[in-house]
Amino acid sequence: MSLQENLARFRKQQEKCQSTLSSIASEKQASTKSSNPPKHNSNVHKSNLPTASPSINARPPVKFSNDTERLQIINSIRKAPAGAQIKRVIDLLLERREALTPEQINQVCHVDVYANKTVFESLKNNPKVSYDGQCFSYKSKHEVKNKDQLLVLIRRYPEGMPIIDLKDSYINVMEDLQALKADRKVWLLSNFDSQEDIVYPNDPRVPIKVDDDLKQLFRSIELPRDFLDIEKELQKTGIKPLTNTAQRRAAAQIQGVSSKNKPKKKKHEISKRTKLTNAHLPELFQNLSTQ
C-alpha cells in the first residue's frame, strides 16, 4: 500500500474517532442533566441561584494533534532505504540549485544526513553532489550558468555533444538551446545510432559555400526505387544502414503465413450449467442457452 493510501486511511480513522468521542461526550452530558435535575428552593430568590458556566457544560470536541500526519511522513522517509533518501536529497539540490546545510536539508525533505552515516558518506562521494565541509550542492557535468557560457562550451566540441550532458547545467538551459538554434548559432540533430539529440556549433567564422554545379550534380543522382537496393549501395561504401529491409520483409511474410494458419478459438457460450459469479446482475443472463 502506498504512502498516500496510508495517509488517507489514517485521516478517515481520525475523523471517525473524533466523531465517536464527541458523541460520547454529548451523551454523557445529557445523561448527567437528566439524572440530576436542579432543586428549586422557595425561600431562595431565582436571582440568587448560581448559573451554570458555559465553559463547563459545553465541552470542546476531542482533537488529535495536527502534527501527527507530518510526523508519520517524516518517520516513513527516515525508515526508507538509503538509496531512496539519497535520491530525495539529490532531487532537492537539483531543484534548488543552491548550497544547503544538513540542517536545511532535514528541514525541507526530512532526511537527517547526520544521523544516517550511509547517506552522509554516499552524498559526499556522489559525482552529482559537491560537499565543501559544511554545505551540499548539486554538481552538473559542465559548469555553465548562462547562454553565453553555454555557447562557448558547445564551440569547444565541433564534433557535437549530447544534449543529455547539458540538461542539468542550469534551470533554463533547454530554453537557451532553443534560442541559440533560432539564432542559427547551433544545430540540434538526432543521432540515429544512440537515439539521442546532439548539439553542434555553427561557427560563423567558417562559412561554407556550395557551388551550383555541385548542387545540380547531387540532385541529378537517381536513387534506387527499392529500399533494399539503397541498403546494398550503402553497404558497398562502408556505411551501415539503419534499417534491414530484407529481415523486415521476411518477418512480415512469416507472420502473414502463421496468422493464416492460426486456428480460431471456439467461442464458449454461457449455459445454465455454467458457474456464474455475477448472479447479482440477472439482466446479464436473460438470454441463456437451454443446453
TrEMBL record:
Gene Ontology MF, one: DNA binding
A cellular component annotation (GO) from this entry: transcription factor TFIIE complex
Pfam families: TFA2_Winged_2 (PF18121), TFIIE_beta (PF02186)
Keywords: DNA-binding, Nucleus, Transcription, Transcription regulation
Record keyword Electron transport present: no
Keyword Nucleus: yes
Biological process terms in GO annotation: transcription initiation at RNA polymerase II promoter
Compositional bias ranges of the Polar residues kind: 18-56
Subcellular localization: Nucleus
Cited InterPro entries: TFA2_Winged_2, TFIIE-bsu, TFIIE_bsu_DNA-bd
Domain TFIIE beta residue range list: 70-145
Compositional bias per record (Basic residues), positions renumbered to this chain: 261-273
Stretches the record annotates as Disordered: 18-62, 252-273
Subunit structure: Tetramer of two alpha and two beta chains.
UniProt similarity note: Belongs to the TFIIE beta subunit family.
Purpose: Recruits TFIIH to the initiation complex and stimulates the RNA polymerase II C-terminal domain kinase and DNA-dependent ATPase activities of TFIIH. Both TFIIH and TFIIE are required for promoter clearance by RNA polymerase.
Name assigned to this protein: Transcription initiation factor IIE subunit beta
Gene: LOC110688282
